[in-house]
Amino acid sequence: MKRPARTPSSASKAKKVPSGPTYSAPALEKGLDILEMLCRSNIPLSQSEIAESLGRSVSEIYRMLTCLVDRNYIVNIADTYAITTKVFELAHSNPPTNRLLAEAGPLMQELSSSLQQACHLTVYNQGRQIVIAKVDNPAGMGFSLRVGAELDVLVSASGRALLAFQDPETIALRVKESVQRRPEHASLDITPILDKIRKRGFESIVSLQIKGLHAVGYPILDTQNRAIAALTVPYAERLDQSNKKTVSDVEAVLGKAARALSERMGWRHGETPGMRNEVGEAATVSGQTPARRVNRR
User: Fold this and answer.
1) Is there a smaller number of Cβ atoms within 10 Å at the N or the C end of the chain?
2) Which fold has domain 92-296?
């Protein structure tokens, strides 16, 4: 039988739909809380320490811990619990991420060796960046980040490179998410900054987070000319080298590496402005300036 339409009077009396999740899964949430905590911890934690940090009783998390151990997500070592590599392995079994990492590895090794600087690869994730790969300075001295580190978006070279090469709707959403995570960045006028990055193809700034660093970040582009990752060199000047690289050297060499990685991910030369060629000049197509080509996207 066809259900009668709701009348205005009955609609006004209807119970409002809650804005939060419709369903809850307490056991799953407890398990995820434990995983997230152990991922953030640098040392194994006892059952009581985990319970106290999560604001739960030991009896509440006992079964969760047992299940996670059985499924090999965590390991029990002398009455303490630590994360295994299973979460990491699952994350990197995702085909796009796996391919990106496979292609990036040799290029990043060559880049770091050429510049005698560290480099890292980041992707966007809900208002922050995640470092998914890094290569330390082969000389053994310099600044580098660990894999899994979370970085701000609006004030970093890599974050801005990730933002600039997106459609307007995606940019607006990511800026909103980033400000929600870091409200102190709400006053930053990001639009002209992103416009400038689109015109030259990359960001190169004195670090706004670490004194003494100069960060250079390039987008890694896909077949749709969108940034799927950012390749960054946190340039730390060596005072004891006579033939040290300059910021311009970093921009040119990093630009070549980013272009090569983008091509391996499906991007084609001439489709997007600012990807630098071997002589470090902004690429142009049919005599058009990068700024004009941005407007055509």
Assistant:
1) N
2) Beta-Lactamase (3.30.450)
Return residue ranges of the chain for CATH 1.10.10.10: 25-88
CA distances from 184 to 154, 179, 215 (A): 11, 7, 21
Task: Give the per-residue pLDDT at 240.
Answer: 67
**Beta strand ranges found along 85-242 (DSSP E):** 119-125, 128-135, 150-151, 203-206, 213-221, 227-236
Query: Encoding tokens for residue 6?
Result: 């709701």
Cα–Cα nearest to 151, from 122, 174, 180 = 122
CATH, range 25-88? 1.10.10.10
Residues 6+ apart with CB under 8 A from 101: 92, 121, 132, 133
In the chain, where does the domain assigned CATH 3.30.450.40 lie? 92-296
How many helices (H) does the chain have, and how many strands (E)? 11, 9
pLDDT for res 10 = 40
Question: Consecutive 10-residue runs of the chain (297 residues): their mean pLDDT?
Answer: 42 43 79 92 93 92 93 93 87 76 94 94 94 88 83 95 95 95 93 95 91 92 93 85 84 96 86 42 30 32
User: Residue 158: which of 235, 88, 98 has the closest Cα?
Assistant: 235
Measure the CA dihedral 255/141/102/218, to 10°: -20
